[in-house]
Amino acid sequence: MPVDSLIEQRLLVVEAAVAELQRRLPVPQPVPDWLKQITGSFKGEPAFDEVLAYGRAFREADRPVGGPES
Questions:
Q1: Which of 7, 42, 64, 69 has its C-alpha lying 20 to 30 A from 29's C-alpha?
Q2: How far is CA 59 from CA 15, 48, 53, 55, 68, in A?
Q3: How far is CA 37 from CA 22, 32, 33, 52, 54, in A?
Q4: Contacts of 70 by beta carbon, 8 Å cutoff, 6+ apart
């Protein structure tokens, strides 16, 4: 049997196996967009405003003193 024919036969077997596996897999359900679910949920929350202030202060403290030429 020629090598090309053997490769084609083996490829057909692999393709059939993949098709069978895909048929057996459940259809994936869409993943909810968690970001949309939580966006705005902390609005007006004093603790969240405090966290934002801490983050801002941390970033500002991490900046080099004297600008880029220092």
A1: 42
A2: 54, 17, 10, 6, 16
A3: 31, 8, 7, 20, 24
A4: 64
pTM for the model: 0.40
Q: For residues 15-32, b (16+ Cβ closer than 10 Å) or e, as one string?
A: eeeeeeeeeeeeeeeeee
Q: Report domain extents, the chain.
A: 3-61
Cα separation, 16 vs 30, whole angstroms: 27
Please say if the pLDDT value at position 21 is more than 90: yes
